[in-house]
Structure formats: structure tokens, C-alpha cells
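Give me the fold.
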Amino acid sequence: MADSFTFVVVLNACVSVVAIEEGRSAHEQVIQSGWDSDVKVGNCLVDMYAECGSMEDAWRVFNKMPLHDVVSWNAILVGCAMHGHMVRELLSILNRCVKKVYNQMISLLFVFCQCVVMQVWWMKGCAVMLQ
């Protein structure tokens, strides 16, 4: 039985030789084996369809993915840019991306600020102990 690593390798091979029919066949295997919800496999599918010129299929896979990461967003953006999609569509994608990661960014910013506060507190404590 194939695993996610196998599908990633096969899909990347399809991209390197622009073999969309073989990629579609691999996509069917991905669905049959249940790996279609894996973000790495989904990213490779989006990239494969985009690189092979089928943005409709790339979008279909992207929209069915349960989770998007930076690679997902990058694959769909690069695909749109490669195939001359309108700037407005690219801005729409960026807007969706920002909305998705905004809460994560706020959380990371809060953690970062807390680390800075703790570092200052720790450094002041050390300075007091050294005096």
C-alpha cells in the first residue's frame, strides 16, 4: 500500500515531465487510498495540476483540502501567476490567505512579546543578583 511519501514522489515526477494524465491517475489512487486529506499530498496535487496547466483542477483540489499551509497558498499563487491570471484574482487569494493566518499571527506576536518581556525580566533579575 502506498503512503504519503510515495504519492509525493510520484506527483513530483509527473510535474518534472509534465505528465498530467499520469498525475490524474495518481490522483485517483490518492483518493482510493484515503491520502487526499493529507496536506503534503494535497500540496503536491495542487502543484502538479498548476504546473501541468490545469488551474481548474488545481483549484478543485485546493478548495477540497481540509487544511492549507504556506506551501498550499504558494502553490496556488504561483500557478495563477504562471498562467496569467488577473491581478484582482491574485489579490483575492492573498486576502483569503491573510484572513486564514491572521489569528495565528496574532497568537505568535503575543507569544513573541511575552518572550521579550520574560527576557527583559530575566536580564534585570540577573543584573540585580550581580550587583
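The mean pLDDT is 78.
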